[in-house]
């Protein structure tokens, strides 16, 4: 399993020059293409809530 340590950007949108964002703590993310349901409300059991997305 991979994880994101930091992000290095240069002249991206409102960030001018070279910027390093991070280091990040480890976390879990649900990712997918737009419209694939990654923000659906029925994930309550995974998120520890009652759904309602």
Automatic annotation (TrEMBL):
Location in or out of the cell: Chromosome; Nucleus
Any one annotated GO CC term: meiotic cohesin complex
A Pfam family: SMC_N
Region (Disordered): 33-53
Chief location: nucleus
Phylogenetic lineage: Eukaryota, Metazoa, Chordata, Craniata, Vertebrata
Biased composition (Gly residues): 42-53
Molecular functions per Gene Ontology: DNA binding
Name of this protein: RecF/RecN/SMC N-terminal domain-containing protein
SUPFAM superfamilies found in the cross-reference section: P-loop containing nucleoside triphosphate hydrolases
BP GO annotations: sister chromatid cohesion
Keywords (A to Z) from UniProt: Chromosome
RecF/RecN/SMC N-terminal domain span: 3-39
InterPro entries assigned: P-loop_NTPase, RecF/RecN/SMC_N
């Amino acid at each position: 399993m991979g994880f994101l340590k930091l992000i290095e950007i240069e002249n991206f949108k409102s960030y001018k020059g070279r910027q390093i964002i991070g280091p990040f703590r480890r976390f879990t993310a649900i990712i997918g293409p737009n419209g694939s349901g990654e923000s659906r409300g029925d994930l309550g059991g995974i998120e520890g809530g009652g759904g309602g997305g």
